[in-house]
Amino acid sequence: xxxxxxxxIEAVRLRDTPLCVGMxxxxxxxPALFGGGLRAIEAFFAEILEIARTRAAVVKPQIAFFEAxxxxxxxxxxxxTAEAQAKGLLVILDAKRGDIGSTAAGYAEATIGAGGFDAxxxxxxxxxxxxxxxxxxxxxxxxxxxxxxxxxxxxxxARDLQDLTLEGGAPLxxxxxxxxxxxxxxxxxxxxxxxxxxxxxATWPEEAAKLRxxxxxxxxxxxxxxxxxxxxxxxxxxxxxxxxxVVSSSRAVLYPPAASEARTLDVWRAAxxxxxxxxxxxxxxxxxx
Amino acid sequence: xxxxxxxxIEAVRLRDTPLCVGMxxxxxxxPALFGGGLRAIEAFFAEILEIARTRAAVVKPQIAFFEAxxxxxxxxxxxxTAEAQAKGLLVILDAKRGDIGSTAAGYAEATIGAGGFDAxxxxxxxxxxxxxxxxxxxxxxxxxxxxxxxxxxxxxxARDLQDLTLEGGAPLxxxxxxxxxxxxxxxxxxxxxxxxxxxxxATWPEEAAKLRxxxxxxxxxxxxxxxxxxxxxxxxxxxxxxxxxVVSSSRAVLYPPAASEARTLDVWRAAxxxxxxxxxxxxxxxxxx
Lengths: 289, 289
Fold this sequence. Notes:
2 copies of one chain form a homodimer.
Chain A: H1 4-15, E1 19-23, H2 37-52, E2 58-61, H3 63-67, H4 71-86, E3 90-97, H5 101-112, E4 121-124, H6 130-143, E5 146-152, H7 158-161, H8 172-180, E6 194-200, H9 205-214, E7 218-222, H10 232-235, E8 245-249, H11 251-254, H12 257-260, H13 265-287
Parallel strand pairs in A: 1-2, 1-8, 2-3, 3-4, 4-5, 5-6, 6-7, 7-8
Helix pairs in contact in A: 2-4, 2-13, 5-6
């Protein structure tokens, strides 16, 4: 198996889009067509994955929403991860885990390990320091997986800590990026891109350019496009020559208005395909100015 | 039901110890007496809880290790949480969750919500900013639960980010504490203590005193005592008049050498009780100088 970065960039090139479909189950927004309960969520995402397989490079289950449904929801994440992979999609598990030593190794095993979700990549929180990343990096290197570190997020509260000015004048988030820089090589593939990725919120396009300078080979995971208000052009601000990461969209492609009004599965399918196609058209236009 | 802080401090006073028994399942270290697989882990902790109920104020399942065992391990955490509560123990779920908006609300529901683990408190990572804490605080206030924020951890890598000097000269972790200070009142109980707790690593006793000055009413969760090398006296450095939080010990009380050599359940039980009693004797001595 090739390096995660190579598999990701190849998937982006093949579909000609950096679209990452976020898998956020909102039971209230899943059309009645699918029935109710966990089975509705399972059926809903089975359809979403089928529509996404030719339209997105990668999917990103947001495990918080599955965990909120109880242990059965957690187990469903594993099932859907395997289903997405069987359809040829890469899976980024959005879990934002972070701990130290053997505990971090536990999370690494649970997310990208053979006995856990066996996802292709996982998001992690590095507030605990470099040693908290090591078990993830080691397992990712061994198993050709990716590790995606929260650097500069897309929420208003990102200002509270991430933007604090350090002695010397740089904001905290740049130090997080600098901490990653020496490790990027460990997950670099033949494409030259690294699977030690950074979360770079689309709502901060100027920061994305700065982050690209600190981490020239790291692929970016860009949240905040669509429902969170950032434009496609903002979302790709950290890209270079038309590539450099994936752009996540969840609610805009899972719950577009036309889909919520659909009374038949075919109408719903067409509405979802339209929403993904529209996102792709916007992203392609932003990448070819 | 009374505020989490009141329930915790009452439990500490009743057992006359701040001991928090960490529940870290290491399958290789669980004696053969218990059999193998998940059932061994379940049986092991059922015994641990029975021994701990009169010797510890609170228990702390480390969910990373359960997640590493797959979805069945995750489900087991819920079962053990309910079992501990049925035995009169409070449960801190050590999950170090952190995300934004509706995603953070998902984690809050999953950990301290009625549809999730319904634990008494949960550990969270605040790198994403104040807005990432809000859903936890709101649910905790509503349900008399606790929220425990990582401020200054006990690992060497804590220096990488938490200790960075901000413009003006203060380390980053003090700013995290300052961000919590205005919120502490929301989770204060009649005891005067707040269930908006802070993680204050025992390996940094001087920082604990500083942290106490910034957060005078917040109870502390102190990791790092025992296996991580901090003394009982270091562990209670942030306490005031003999109280102010709980001190976590995992491996030292779960896997003491005498227990691993035990060939009968009675011998094993006595070894575990001895290890907890020894921790309590040390902690009591440290608190009554």
